[in-house]
Specification:
Blueprint: H1 24-38, H2 40-45, H3 54-71, H4 88-91, H5 99-109, H6 114-140, H7 144-153, H8 158-167, H9 169-189, H10 195-207, H11 211-230, H12 234-261, E1 273-274, E2 297-300, E3 303-305, H13 317-320, H14 326-334, H15 336-343, H16 347-360, E4 365-366, E5 369-370, H17 376-391, H18 400-421, H19 426-477, H20 489-495, E6 502-506, H21 514-518, E7 535-536, H22 546-552, H23 564-567, H24 580-583, E8 586-592, E9 608-613, E10 617-622, E11 632-635, E12 639-646, E13 653-659, E14 662-669, E15 674-678, E16 681-683, E17 692-697, E18 702-708, H25 713-742
Parallel strand pairs: 6-7, 6-8
Antiparallel strand pairs: 1-4, 2-3, 4-5, 8-10, 9-10, 11-14, 12-13, 13-18, 14-17, 15-16, 15-18
Helix pairs in contact: 1-6, 3-5, 3-6, 5-6, 6-7, 6-9, 6-17, 7-17, 7-19, 8-9, 9-10, 9-11, 10-11, 10-12, 10-25, 11-12, 11-16, 12-25, 14-15, 16-17, 18-19
């Protein structure tokens, strides 16, 4: 196969793309190790760089809890003690069927400092992204040195580093897996990979839990299918389709619980196409993709101006454009023989990158996919592969002065766009622009003296310098330095030492200074899950439970409204005449004084005592234990709950009842997937008041068992099992056929 980088010019013929003294696997491994080492730069500058946003409020504390349970032999599909944040299967984002995820959750549970645990996981996926990018560039025909440069730059582009690795770890995992799958599927489409290997990578990609990974796999397969169809190789098309379909069965395991639970969640009705402009990038901002300090004008969490360099790609891409061999590309395009040999293999690259371009700059909401800036890194992946291919054709040696002036003009354009967006940071923009000018000059000198190797050293070293400068400037002035980070599990344990039973915190994140969160005194989202606390109604959720959240005015990270304190002491309804706080089986109530200043010095309600009080919070504790056992929160008159026993992971509960019949309620949310039996016979397990699980029991003595299984789990596992068997057969046949051909 001849690729764009190998297509000869009229005057010269390049060396083969695979030339080099090191074996390819060794170079790829070094790229991965280098990327992992480079991941230490942001952390050395700002200790909790990789522990911000959803990382600290959602993912890592949950990883810690799931990993702790795994070490105890419990594989949690649902954690009833985490309430709105406890439907791990329904959330999908935790990828409970992905063995790499599970291994990392166990790793996280072993590390006391959660910011270190987060870095350990993100370093893995930054390395995997670099490795996969290198392999993809090489498979498309780029030369080794440009592939290395691109592979070490792309993971440290703005969105990937600051958004994904810094705060959205699921997205970081997704882009790394999709890139690896793209490489493997590309090799498969060219008859150079075993279908079973591609199937395994595809299943790992889809099952990691981020829907953009599944979307990416579909886009990759579509682009490759177009390329194979144009080549009229329908046998390879069939293999590609079968492999993709079998890998796609992992989507049923991972996402079917979400789709079958969506009606009770806040994601219900997320259909159609709309545009609210939130996190929707503008094409014009791409002119500043090599400006490290550019903060684009885009509607984001902090307002209409970004606080992170989300559209930054790499410092050298735009300045190098005038030095690329556009004349060779023009020659290839004009010559039919070279065009077929050099451009035809790149059809899939063009199709995949084109689709991502349309999505990135499209509407802000397409069904359940929202915030199109999330796709910028996939678009940049395609752009950087094309850049590596073009750079593989060499650096122009003519018209040096004109090219230098053009580079200077492009650097100035990036500076001006950055200045226009945030003129208050003019000095910062100027420092970065001057740094890029100096690095560009150093790159040219290095190229003159040592050609590609010298150029690569400066480009990679420049990536390190620019990344360090970005992290320093941003963490010093704005984000993520302003984000609290309760990272120590020891601190969390000490701060929650007085918490007994089920905990409910009444607090507002917007009223809480960061130091109160860092100390563990006030916690939001899933942060409390990294402590020894038995159960917490406060949790982070990506899907929500509408009925429950509306009743208790909880937002997605469990901030509450001031009125909730008064509501807790009211009866549930006319039929259930116990207070809401008993119905929820709350034993510890934390009240933030800033939320209710009028109660800062008030006595404890009847039946409660003050366990602790300071300037920040009051901790109320129930004086006597709740009368009902297990998680049973209410039994109607005539129903006597004799006993309740939960299994090791708390999901399954066996309750013995007696009496004249009625209903019993459980202090757990009635997620789809719960089922109940009475004396072995299946009975309905509906959502009662506020969404709590409720069972109707007949007259007499009975054994009631409730348990949870993700909706259609057995069917999904059977489908994946069949797909695995099919792919093992296909992979074996492919291996035997290749051996016969080679023989």
């Amino acid at each position: 196969m001849v690729s764009l980088s190998d297509a000869p010019s009229p005057k010269t013929t390049e060396k083969p793309a695979g030339s080099g003294s090191w074996p390819e696997w060794a170079v790829a491994l070094c790229v991965a190790l280098a990327a992992a080492v480079l991941s230490a730069v942001p952390r050395l500058i700002y200790g909790t760089f990789y522990y911000a946003g959803d990382t600290l409020e959602s993912f890592v504390p949950s990883w810690h809890r799931i990993g702790t349970e795994l070490r105890a032999g419990n594989w949690l599909m649902v954690n009833p003690d985490a309430w709105i944040g406890g439907n791990y299967a329904g959330e999908a984002a935790y990828g409970l069927y992905n063995p790499v995820n599970l291994a990392n959750y166990i790793l996280t549970s072993l590390i006391e400092d959660l910011s270190v645990a987060s870095w350990a996981v993100m370093a893995q996926f930054l390395a995997l992204f670099a490795l996969s990018t290198y392999l993809l560039c090489r498979e498309y025909g780029a030369r080794r040195i440009p592939s290395i440069v691109v592979a070490l730059a792309l993971p440290y582009s703005g969105f990937t580093l600051f958004y994904e690795a810094g705060g959205w770890p699921s997205g970081m995992m997704a882009v790394a897996w999709v890139t690896l799958f793209w490489w493997s599927a590309l090799r498969l489409s060219r008859g150079r990979a075993n279908p079973f290997v591609t199937f395994v990578i595809g299943a790992l990609t889809i099952s990691m839990g981020n829907p953009y990974a599944a979307l990416g796999a579909v886009i990759v397969l579509f682009g490759l299918a177009v390329s194979v169809i144009i080549d009229r190789n329908f046998r390879r098309l069939a293999v590609l389709i079968i492999t993709g379909a079998c890998a796609g069965t992992a989507a049923a395991l991972t996402y079917l619980p979400l789709f079958l639970s969506v009606d009770v969640t806040t994601r219900a009705g997320s259909t159609g196409i709309s545009n609210d402009t939130f996190l929707q990038p503008q094409i014009s901002a791409l002119g500043a993709m090599s400006s490290p300090s550019h903060l684009p004008v885009i509607m984001t969490f902090g307002g209409p101006i970004e606080v992170l360099p989300s559209l930054y790609l790499a410092w050298f891409v735009v300045p190098l454009l005038p030095w690329l061999r556009w004349d060779r590309i023009a020659t290839i395009v004009r010559t039919p023989r070279l065009r077929a040999a050099g451009l035809r293999p790149l059809i899939s690259l063009a199709v995949i990158t084109g689709i991502y371009f349309l999505f990135t700059f499209g509407p802000s909401n397409i069904g359940m996919f929202r915030w199109p800036i999330r796709l910028i890194e996939y678009l940049y992946l395609g752009v950087m592969v094309a850049f590596a291919l073009t750079l593989s054709m060499g650096i122009a040696r003519t018209a040096v002065r004109a090219r230098a002036l053009a580079s200077g003009a492009l650097i100035f354009l990036g500076f001006y766009l950055a200045f226009s967006a945030t003129p208050q940071f003019t000095l910062r923009h100027l420092i970065f622009a001057v740094t890029i000018v100096a690095l560009s000059a150093a790159a040219y000198v290095a190229w003159q003296r040592a050609r590609d190797r010298g150029l690569a050293v400066v480009l990679v070293a420049g990536t390190v310098v620019i990344t360090a400068g970005q992290v320093y400037s941003l963490t010093r002035d704005i984000a993520p330095g302003a984000i609290a980070h309760p990272a120590s599990t020891t601190v969390l344990a000490d701060a929650t030492a007085n918490y007994q039973g089920t905990v409910l915190q009444l607090a507002d994140r917007n009223l809480t200074p960061d130091d109160q969160i860092t100390s563990g005194q006030i916690l939001f989202g899933n942060e409390i899950l990294a402590s020894p606390v038995e159960a917490s109604i406060n949790a982070y959720t990506g899907i929500g439970f509408t009925m429950f959240q509306e009743a208790l005015c909880l937002d997605y990270r469990a901030s509450t409204c001031p009125e909730l304190f008064d509501y807790l002491w009211e009866p549930v309804n006319d039929d259930i005449d116990i207070p809401i706080i008993d119905y929820l089986r709350v034993s510890t109530l934390i009240l933030q004084h800033e939320l209710r200043p009028d109660l800062a010095d008030s006595p404890a309600p009847d039946g409660w005592r003050i366990a602790d009080r300071d300037d920040i919070r009051t901790i109320f504790e129930r004086e006597q234990s709740l009368a009902l056992p297990g998680t049973v929160s209410y039994a109607s008159p005539g129903v006597d709950v004799v006993s309740a026993q939960r299994d090791d992971n708390g999901t399954r509960e066996t309750v013995t009842v007696d009496g004249t019949g009625g209903t019993i309620s459980f202090a757990r949310l009635a997620w789809p997937g719960y089922f109940a039996t009475i004396d072995g016979e299946t009975v309905p397990a509906p959502a009662g008041w506020h969404g709590l699980l409720e069972i109707t029991v007949p007259t007499g003595a009975h054994e009631v068992v409730i348990d949870f299984r993700p909706p259609k789990q057995r069917l999904s596992m059977a489908a994946f099992g069949v797909a695995t068997i099919v792919m093992m057969a296909v992979g074996t046949y492919s291996a035997i056929s290749r051996r016969r051909t080679d023989a």
